[in-house]
Every structure is written in C-alpha cells, then in structure tokens.
Design a protein that fits this description.
Layout (H helix, E strand, L loop, with lengths): L30 H6 L9 E7 L2 E7 L2 H29 L2
Antiparallel strand pairs: 1-2
Length: 94
C-alpha cells in the first residue's frame, strides 16, 4: 500500500472541541488525551497529512507500545468499574 493511503478507511473519532494555535505555532494536546495515549514530555511524534472529504487532516502517529499500554489500561479500568458495580448490586440485594 502506498504510504499516502494509510488513513483511507480509518475510523476518525471527533473530540467535539476545537483548540487554537498560539503565537509560536503550538497546539495543546489536552491532558485527557495525553493520559489516554500515554504521551509524556519529550515523546517524539510523527505528523502525517491527508486530504479526504474536501478537508485536510493532520494526524499524529504515536508509539505502538504506548497505544497498547493505553488500551490495556482502559480495559483494566473498565473491568474494575464493572466489577465494582456488580459488587454494589450484590450488596444491595442482601
């Protein structure tokens, strides 16, 4: 597959929030996204652009290990929350 076609068919998830570029050309990556994707100070990122549906998209490629850790952490958090809910339901039925 040509390198410029990697995003075709990707599932882009809108954040439903806009951010402004500051006078130095910087955009803040919100803390909830930094936490979700385990982005830390000094991490290197690759930028890619693509044009689709009459819009330009700027994408950031993250380290696969960080992404895997984020997915595992989110799954563990979800499992813990579900277990706590189930335990609360069981206690309420006693």
């Amino acid at each position: 597959m040509p390198q410029n076609e990697w995003i075709v068919g990707a599932n882009l998830v809108p954040e439903n929030k806009t951010y402004r570029v500051d006078s130095s050309g910087r955009v803040i990556i919100p803390s909830h996204l930094r936490s979700k994707f385990r982005i830390e100070v000094g991490d290197e990122m690759e930028y890619y652009t693509t044009f689709a549906d009459n819009s330009w998209f700027l994408c950031i490629k993250l380290d696969a290990k960080a992404q895997a850790a984020a997915i595992i952490a989110a799954a563990e958090e979800k499992a813990a929350a579900e277990a706590a809910i189930e335990e609360a339901k069981n206690e309420a039925n006693l």
